[in-house]
Amino acid sequence: MEKIEHNILIEYCDKCALENSYPMERKKQKGACKLCGRLGFVNQIQQSSIVDFDGFNGETWEGGGYTIDQLVPFPPNQLKDTIHPTLSHRLLTEKIDLFFDKDILIIANPKTGQQIRIRF
Questions:
Q1: Is residue 68 scored above 70 in pLDDT?
Q2: How many domains is the chain built from?
Q3: Measured CA distances, 8 to 4, 22, 45 (Å)
Q4: Under a CB-based contact definition with an 8 Å cutoff, are residues 107 and 118 in contact?
Q5: Which H helix or E strand runs over 98?
Q6: Of 92, 97, 58, 93, which Cα lies nearest the Cα of 78?
Q7: What are 25-49's pLDDT values in tens digits?
Q8: Residues forming beta bridges with residue 70, ordered by sequence position
Q9: Containing domain of residue 107, as a range?
Q10: What gap in Å lies between CA 77 and CA 86, rounded to an integer?
Q11: Across residues 80-91, what is the average pLDDT?
Q12: Cα(72)–Cα(52) distance, rounded to whole angstroms?
């Protein structure tokens, strides 16, 4: 089963930092912005430092051969191929994206960054 990191470093450009009121660092790294895709010098910060934790519940529910837990939210409007790059992706509705593999399903709202993981 794939281990999905909750507290990863996220990279974003100064333009996206200003638009989203994210902190900017003096020392930048070369990379690509995870929000707009721009290449160049980017800020690096823990994802959990810039996402909204209101209503976050770290409890895991188990039963019937599966487990359900809420993942740390990702920044809203992040590029879909950078959210869970090793999982397949399908757009279910405008508000729901599915990321999946043979033993995992993640239901995510790209506009809010909220996501729930189901493991089989």
A1: yes
A2: 2
A3: 10, 16, 8
A4: yes
A5: strand 97-101
A6: 97
A7: 999 999 999 899 999 999 999 887 8
A8: 116
A9: 61-119
A10: 19
A11: 91
A12: 9
What phi and psi values does residue 45 have, to the nearest 5 degrees?
Answer: -150, 155
pLDDT tens for 52-67 read 777 778 889 998 899 9
- Residue 68, domain member (yes or no): yes
Same domain, 109 and 76: yes
Instruction: Report the pLDDT value the prediction gives residue 23, as an integer from 0 to 100.
Output: 92
Quote the percentage of the chain above a pLDDT of 90: 57
| 16 found inside a domain | yes
Order of strands, sheet of 66-71, starting from the edge strand that comes earlier in the sequence: 60-63, 66-71, 115-119, 104-108, 97-101, 88-91
Q: What is the average pLDDT across 98-117?
A: 94
Q: How many residues are recorded in the chain?
A: 120
Tokens matching residue 91 = 């757009």
Phi and psi, residue 83, nearest 5°: -75, -60
User: How far apart are the C-alpha atoms of 46 and 11, rounded to whole Å?
Assistant: 9
Q: What are phi and psi of 23, to 5 degrees?
A: -65, 150
Do 68 and 41 share a structural domain?
no
Tell whether the model's pLDDT for residue 86 goes beyond 70.
yes
